[in-house]
Design goal:
By secondary structure, the protein is mainly beta. It is 4% helix and 46% strand. Strands 2-1-4-9-6-7 form a 6-stranded antiparallel beta sheet, with no helix packed on it.
């Protein structure tokens, strides 16, 4: 794990996948039940969600299964969450992203895949980058939890010329109109 990621995770995060309280400028996560033994992200278009949660950031650092799955459902394994939202880019250029998950996850920006961290695995980080223009952009993070033992989902962002920080829609929203 890169040192910068370890330092960010040392901070005491509010550990939750989301809440049922609507956050208009946040990420909306549709929750899906998966069949036992699922080894890849599902085709969400062919699956019916069982619930919806909302969050402004994805900050569930690696933790033991015994701590549970904060904010999701009573289901403890074999579920998926498909988060969608928008964010604002003030400074155009190459933006870097890091996605840590246990198990599989993918990051899409404006419909294009930026990070593929899919499949069953222990907590692991995959990085990617994309050139972004000034303005609003779509973000999607697809995640699934397979077998028990550990759980994790953290999304970091590094705007051009800056160090990495937690991706938070509160910090990446359009400026107020004059």
């Amino acid at each position: 794990m890169p040192l910068w990621l370890a330092l960010l995770l040392i901070q005491e995060p509010q550990v939750t996948f989301g809440t049922t309280v609507v956050i208009p400028a946040g990420l909306e996560g549709k929750i899906y039940n998966l069949r036992h033994g699922t080894s890849r992200l599902p085709d969400f278009e062919k699956t019916k969600p069982v619930g919806t949660i909302y969050t402004t950031s994805l900050n569930v650092p690696p933790q033991d299964f015994k701590k549970g799955f904060p904010g999701v459902t009573r289901r403890t394994e074999w579920f998926a969450i498909d988060y969608k939202g928008r964010f604002w880019v003030e400074q155009e250029g190459v933006w870097r992203f890091s996605l840590l998950s246990d198990d599989g996850s993918k990051l899409y920006i404006d419909g294009g895949e930026v990070i593929d961290n899919d499949g069953p695995h222990q907590p692991q980080v995959v990085e990617g980058s994309v050139a972004l223009k000034h303005g609003a952009h779509d973000v999607r993070v697809s995640y699934y939890q397979g077998p028990r033992y550990q759980v994790a989902l953290v999304l970091l962002v590094a705007p051009p010329g800056e160090g990495p920080r937690l991706f938070d829609t509160n910090e990446l929203k359009p400026p107020p109109e004059p």
